[in-house]
Design a protein that fits this description.
The chain has helices spanning 37-40, 105-116; strands spanning 10-12, 77-78, 125-134, 140-150, 153-160, 165-171, 176-181, 190-196, 199-204, 212-219, 225-232, 236-240, 243-248, 253-258, 264-269, 277-283, 308-313, 318-322, 341-345, 348-353, 358-363, 374-378, 383-390, 395-402, 410-415, 420-426, 432-436, 439-443, 447-451, 457-463, 465-470, 473-477, 485-493, 500-509, 514-515, 519-523, 528-534. With 535 residues, the protein is mostly beta strands. The protein has a single domain (10-94, 126-534), classed as Methylamine Dehydrogenase, Chain H, CATH 2.130.10.10. Strand 36 and strand 37 (528-534) form a beta hairpin. The longest helix is centred in the N-terminal third of the chain and has 12 residues, at 105-116. The chain crosses the membrane at residues 94-117. Residues 1-10, 55-65 have a biased composition (Pro residues). This is Pyrrolo-quinoline quinone repeat domain-containing protein.
């Protein structure tokens, strides 16, 4: 066993004797020879929080850095739970080619890769190249550690023996360490770090002696502590448009705090006076085309354009709130319970209505006074919908399981323009859906499958973990990402192309890792590391 000061035990040494093995499985079509792109790779690119806030209770091993940014496939944050982007929005279009001879297959396959993933070509993948190793400001223990990447900035954090969070900021572009300190101060247990434009926030677990957690915001340029805020054990936090929203469950109040100063700009009482409510960030397609964690939480969402949230109260009412000034639209009754599966994206609120088994779509424009919602789908009475995520500008995807037959679960995509089922495919034991453009990544505990816009698997049951880099590229890890120190073998995939071997990422705490489209940043046993895999 280890003491608090020991580095985490290394549990995965299998790569020590591996000579850069290839990926466990190539895409289903093989891609070794020319393919018919319309049958094998008809896909396009664009878009998807902890979905529903959760109480501040100990959580299982997090995804590479879990975050507190709500909305879409990222979720609301609680003080105890897992809680970026310069790509243009892609609008799905149809490409009609006539009179193409069979002898043009090679050229057509190449053309299709460009046309079907516009704006998101294959990244320039190469073997991992260590950019920099960074020494923390003080020795870190085997306790909580995290990394975040936003734009050209990487942040690292670890826990020192006295409980302080040791944070380091690194400029990826210049290759220079910007600052490092322990300004955040101590906590019984730190839980999460969230990178924001010009700031970085840290959240602790509740102190069992006070039932309070800490929210600390550091200046991104200098590292100086901007402000500190006490959170209740079940409070949830949302970031957007230069504001921080704290849903105070004990006092049934929503607080709007200014990100730079922490000053309270407004507050709203919960509409029904109850402590139970859910906040949903309203995401846009641009929010969901950049790097994301393995659960779909965007590492660098465009928080400047996330200026609305939807609040769902215990009395099943819902309202749209302007983040900047706290103005609340008219409440709408009988929308959803806080525990219902919901997501707000691209001007719509989607609700999987537990009492009727219907999937509904509400227009957020004039939400309080608009007409009846569109009925997207009515599930069989014995069916369970276990996930709900956008999978294109005008599509929504779900996981449907009949009874408890998880080995027969299916991923279903619905077209919101035609109001019809677009496709339905088997996905045994799938737990998580993450959009990759108009494709969707379906993951289990141990494997993942990428379905393109037609439902055709680009690969099936790939062992390990996968995550979105952008709307046309996926980063794959050879194993599960855990807090233990070990090795991960990486490859990068642009659907329609052969997987590119990247190589072994050695001696890292996998669950701490974060990435953008060129580097991966991780905490190791005693220090931090940045490695480049593209560009």
């Amino acid at each position: 066993m280890t003491t608090p000061n020991d580095p985490p035990p290394r549990t995965d040494t299998q790569l020590d004797t591996m000579a850069a093995p290839g990926p466990a499985e190539e895409p289903a079509s093989g891609y070794a020879a020319p393919v018919d792109p319309w049958a094998e790779a008809e896909a396009a690119a664009n878009l998807t929080n902890n979905h529903v806030p959760h109480p501040m209770a100990p959580a299982p091993a997090p995804e590479p850095p879990t975050a507190l940014i709500e909305g879409g496939p990222a979720h609301p944050l609680t003080a105890a739970e897992d809680a970026e982007p310069e790509h243009p929005s892609y609008k799905k279009g149809f490409w009609i080619l006539g009179g193409v001879a069979a002898t043009a297959t090679v050229a057509l396959a190449v053309t299709a890769t460009v046309l079907l993933w516009p704006g998101f070509p294959a990244l320039d993948y190469h073997a991992l190249d260590q950019v920099r190793g960074l020494t923390p400001v003080a020795p870190i223990t085997s306790g909580w550690a995290d990394a975040e990447v936003i734009g050209d900035r990487a942040y690292f954090a670890g826990t020192v023996e006295t409980g302080e969070a040791a944070v380091t900021a690194y400029n990826i572009g210049s290759g220079r360490e910007v600052w490092k300190n322990i300004e955040a101060g101590p906590a019984k247990t730190w839980k999460q770090m969230i990178a924001l434009p010009d700031a970085v926030a840290l959240i602790s677990d509740p102190d069992y002696t006070t039932s309070l957690a800490r929210l600390v915001v550091l200046d991104g340029t200098t590292g100086v502590k901007r402000w500190d805020y006490s959170l209740g054990s079940s409070d949830t936090v949302h970031f957007g448009a230069g504001m921080v929203l704290v849903d105070d469950h004990e006092h049934s109040v929503l607080h709007g705090l200014e990100l730079f100063s922490g000053d309270e700009k407004w507050q709203l009482a919960n509409p029904d006076g109850s402590a139970s409510s859910t906040l949903l960030g309203v995401t846009t397609p641009d929010d969901l085309t950049g790097p994301a964690g393995t659960q779909g939480r965007p590492f660098a969402p465009e928080v400047s354009d996330d200026d609305q949230v939807v609040q769902i109260a215990a009395d099943r009412s819902a309202r749209v709130i302007d983040i900047k000034n706290g103005t609340a639209g008219e409440s709408r009754r009988d929308v959803a319970y806080p525990s219902d599966k919901t997501v707000a994206h691209n001007g719509r609120l989607f609700v999987e209505e537990s009492s009727t088994d219907r999937l509904l779509a509400y227009d957020l424009a004039g939400f309080g006074t608009s007409g009846e919602p569109a009925v997207v789908y009515t599930a069989p009475k014995d069916a369970d919908v276990s996930d709900l995520t956008p999978c294109g500008d005008n599509r929504i995807c779900i996981v449907e399981t009949i009874g408890y037959a998880h080995d027969k679960s299916q991923v279903v995509a619905f077209d919101l323009e035609t109001h019809k089922e677009a496709w339905r495919k088997p996905a045994p034991d799938v737990e998580t859906l993450v959009p990759v453009g108009d494709a969707v990544l379906a993951s289990t505990d141990e494997t993942n499958t990428l379905f393109d816009a037609t439902g055709t698997p680009q690969w099936s049951d790939f062992p390990g973990t996968a995550a979105r880099l952008d709307a046309g590229n996926v980063l794959r890890f050879s194993g599960t990402l855990t807090p233990s120190v070990g090795d991960q073998f990486l490859d990068g995939v642009h659907p329609g192309d052969k997987a590119a071997q990247i190589g072994p990422l050695r001696d890292v705490r996998g669950s701490s890792c974060a990435w953008n489209t060129s580097v991966v940043a991780c905490v190791r046993a005693e220090d931090f590391v940045v490695e480049r895999f593209a560009g």
